[in-house]
């Protein structure tokens, strides 16, 4: 038996991306106050996080401004209003935004990196959109951004589709290929398989593998740890697990696990208490029976989200019977 | 890469013990109505579970009946009032009770197994109590019970202490040696180490290794899965995670993971909806910031329990500062 205790040491190259505003915004149509976004930003800086994903760079046609808040589009003036003259050099924090294939006017809406507080564009796409994703990555890279490739809903596609996507992304300038468990379906042995597959496909390219887990089965943190153990150096989390449906790997749990002394959990606990936990008065997220059920069945969480927002939200049995009978 | 998918097959020898009443009773001093205990019992039978731990066999002197409900003592007449003429042969479910070293009048309070609906006595003990635990196991075995050895708070003792306990238990008639993460502190690599250590110490004795996880870090289910992957065939869970402090591995999540068709999650969801979830009106359990903090620091959850029951329960930052300053 090894005498080593890897759980009390750390890898300096492991970087944390907090996507509270981006993923949590899916719960409230990104209708956050500037004060809220600013508090999360300061918490990320003070906690020593590496990246903060502050929203989407999505189309105002697809997501009109009368229904969606500014963090769905991340217009430069909205960013500047909250983060001022932010620079990564001054704060240690890089800012990221996510652009979806099929939902973004990326050819027009993304300004050169030198003119933006954003440092990174994360390109989210489904397998069938990989060709657009490759174009987006190249375009954003040419504009001066670090880029990542986030293949969504990986639990719902075939091995051949995954392999084809990985081959296409390996040839791009993306810095990171992210394992995304959109439905919160994956168990640890599946994380192992995917990590090894992704890492093998990226070998020799200099790319990192990332992990973005959802908490339907209370496994977001555990699956993130598993990926880290295997070598994953880019990990996503959200403060208090705030995110769509069952939510995400909790930033405060992740920082408790990571032993890099540059991280400090106290500012995260502070922003939870004053900003994020109070959202529970009006918003619903986190693991619950409906999300357990859709996760176990490898389904998109939308039916569970509708149920938990409806009048029968506590009728777990009716939801179970409905989902089982319809599947 | 292996083509096998172990997560969709099952091991028939893997047995589930639901300890909702026993561990959940630590939240309300075991003051359950007979109707509640009966509903949990029927759910366990209907779900195809292997064992139900219905309470403690603890001393009425240490836990007086004016403060503690009947499931702290599991008097035979209380058991019979709820489970009637229960037999394992008729229901497929074996009933268990836990007896603590140092807190039980085990020499007098435990009747022969032939006269009780109980099939199993689980002996809980701290390392320094191992000699009494060995006597308890032998005594209960002679009375006709299956027995287990549950070494508590394993994260807080030395390797030598663990080794000494394992050697002592290996020589007893206990059927199972249980890994107990009382403080909800263990990460996956530590579970691996402990499982391998426990399994090696029990090799050749015919004993199984069990796992009892707490959910302080949202890892109870994940750590249970990890132990199962390694070969653990005796796993504890509670319905809706109901249990002391941060609670336990959720029975409904565990049954969703296990693929043995004899298990049925629907009765568990039903009893959650009608019996367990409504307890949340008056009782507090489950992972939250205070339990995250004590878990990360390898502390007993008692300070977090007091805090979550007190007037400042939402002042996470004050709790963090208090615990950090006192540690």
Automatic annotation (TrEMBL), chains A, B:
One of its GO terms (biological process) is L-leucine biosynthetic process. SUPFAM superfamilies: Aldolase. The keyword Zinc does not apply. Pfam families: HMGL-like (PF00682). GO terms for molecular function: 2-isopropylmalate synthase activity. Residues 14-273 form the Pyruvate carboxyltransferase domain. PROSITE patterns: PYR_CT. Keywords: Manganese. PANTHER family: 2-ISOPROPYLMALATE SYNTHASE 1, CHLOROPLASTIC-RELATED, HOMOCITRATE SYNTHASE-RELATED. This is Nucleoid-structuring protein H-NS. It comes from Candidatus Thiodictyon syntrophicum.
């Amino acid at each position: 038996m090894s005498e080593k205790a890897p759980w009390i040491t750390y890898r300096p190259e492991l970087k944390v991306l907090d996507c509270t505003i981006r993923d949590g915004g899916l719960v409230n149509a990104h209708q956050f106050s500037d004060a809220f976004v600013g508090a999360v930003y300061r918490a990320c800086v003070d906690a020593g996080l590496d990246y903060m994903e502050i929203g989407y760079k999505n189309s105002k046609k697809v997501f009109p401004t009368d229904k969606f808040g500014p963090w769905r589009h991340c217009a430069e003036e909205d960013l500047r209003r909250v983060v001022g003259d932010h620079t990564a050099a001054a704060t240690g924090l890089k800012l990221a935004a996510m652009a979806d294939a099929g939902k973004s006017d990326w050819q027009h809406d993304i300004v050169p990196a030198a003119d933006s507080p954003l440092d990174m564009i994360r390109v989210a796409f489904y397998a069938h959109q990989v060709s657009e994703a490759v174009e987006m990555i190249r375009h954003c890279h040419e504009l001066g951004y670090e880029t990542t490739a986030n293949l969504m809903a990986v639990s719902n596609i075939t091995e051949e589709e995954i392999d084809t996507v990985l081959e296409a992304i390996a040839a791009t300038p993306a810095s990171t290929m992210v394992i995304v468990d959109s439905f919160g379906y994956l168990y640890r042995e599946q994380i192992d398989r995917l990590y090894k597959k992704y890492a093998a496909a990226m070998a020799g390219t200099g790319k990192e593998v990332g992990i973005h887990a959802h908490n339907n089965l209370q496994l977001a943190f555990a699956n993130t740890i598993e990926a880290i153990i295997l070598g994953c150096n880019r990990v996503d989390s959200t403060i208090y697990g705030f995110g769509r449906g069952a939510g995400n790997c909790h930033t405060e749990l992740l920082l408790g696990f990571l032993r890099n002394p540059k991280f400090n959990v106290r500012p995260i606990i502070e922003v939870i208490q004053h900003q994020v936990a109070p959202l529970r008065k009006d918003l619903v997220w986190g693991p619950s029976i409906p999300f357990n059920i859709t996760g176990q069945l490898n389904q998109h969480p939308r039916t569970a989200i509708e149920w938990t927002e409806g009048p029968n939200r506590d009728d777990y049995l009716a939801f179970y019977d409905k989902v089982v009978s319809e599947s």
